[in-house]
Amino acid sequence: MKSKGFTERTSHHTPQRRELIMTRKIIAALFALNTVLFAGAVQSYAQENEREIMSVPPPIEPSYLFTIPAGRVVRSLDLDVAASGIFLGEGGGKPVGTSAILGLGDIAEVEIGAMEMVSSLGGSKRVHSVPAGGLRVYVSGWKYWHGISAAFRRSGTHEERVDGVWYEEKVGNFSVMASLANFLTPEEGNEVAGGWQGIKVKTHLGMIYVDPRITPSPQKAQGFWKPFGGFELWRKDSRARIMGELGWNADFQPGGRIEQIWMATGGVRFFFSKHVTADIGVKHQSNQQGLSESVMQFKLRMSFPTHLLRERIVGH
Question: Could you tell me which of 232, 296, 292, 305 has the C-alpha nearest to residue 84?
Fold first, then answer.
């Protein structure tokens, strides 16, 4: 009888225990399913954020500031085209010219365009746009030194008649430029938290040799070495940058004399898109008689990713 009673009680509680066990299994399964779904949602959200971040490409940085070279070159086989001009100069707005730069192997670039030439042979200062060409080579740097470049540029010959005498003027220059920044890589420069609390600073410092020539001239060559440079400043991943630069040029004076002039330009660079930039600045020169003679300088630059054409035709 005891055995029978014990069996009856055991058989009486077995369905309840089975129901409890089944309930626990269902709860465990639902918990596991929720965990998997939550993990999948988190991963999907992270991937979506990563795609959104990656979908905003960093801008292509020009290899020049306003007029002076920076310590970088155009990407290999890409074509950089620019058109520039000045406003509120003597005689109204004057075009300075256009240029085209082709990158070669990420270590060099070749340029065909125009160079600004200043002449006061006729008594009044005039700015001429003269055809010019140049070549620049580049070596990448280490850590905060982003690179160093060496460039050669020379103008064509500009002819000018003064008091019945024809003069031929031309200018050539050689420069060495190094770039230093407060961030390690260009990618970090486009990150919100890069630099010093999101503030990025990049400086370009170097030496330039300017060699002006004029014929006929009773004087010998009057080339000169000068320090020059500039900077870029921006916050977070802003598409607008503050820029400033100091460069040098020569002014052809009556009697074949050469005057050394410095040129300071300050303004902004705005990135309309990854491939299109606009530079707007105020330019002042040492041979001007005050701020009332300063000019507005504009430059529109477009970068064409022509390396993609080569990759499509011949592969990587």
Answer: 296
CA angle at 89 for the pair 84 and 91, rounded to the nearest 5°: 115
Rounded to whole angstroms, what are the CA distances from 219 to 122, 173, 215?
Answer: 18, 19, 10
Q: Do residues 227 and 209 touch, judged by C-beta distance below 8 A?
A: no
CA-CA distances (angstroms) from residue 74 to 101, 200, 230, 274, 287?
7, 21, 18, 14, 33
pLDDT tens per residue, range 128-186:
889 999 999 999 988 899 999 999 999 999 998 888 889 899 999 999 999 999 988 87
Distances, alpha carbon 190 to alpha carbons 27, 54, 105, 185, in Å:
48, 12, 23, 9
52-61 pLDDT, tens per residue?
A: 444 445 678 8
One-letter identity of residue 212? P
pLDDT given at position 150: 96
Angle of CA points 150, 137, 131, to nearest 5°: 80
How deeply is 76 buried, as exposed, middle or buried, from its count of CB atoms within 10 A (0-12, 13-18, 19+)?
middle
Q: What is the pTM of this model?
A: 0.77
Label residue 194 exposed, middle or buried (CB < 10 Å: 0-12, 13-18, 19+). buried
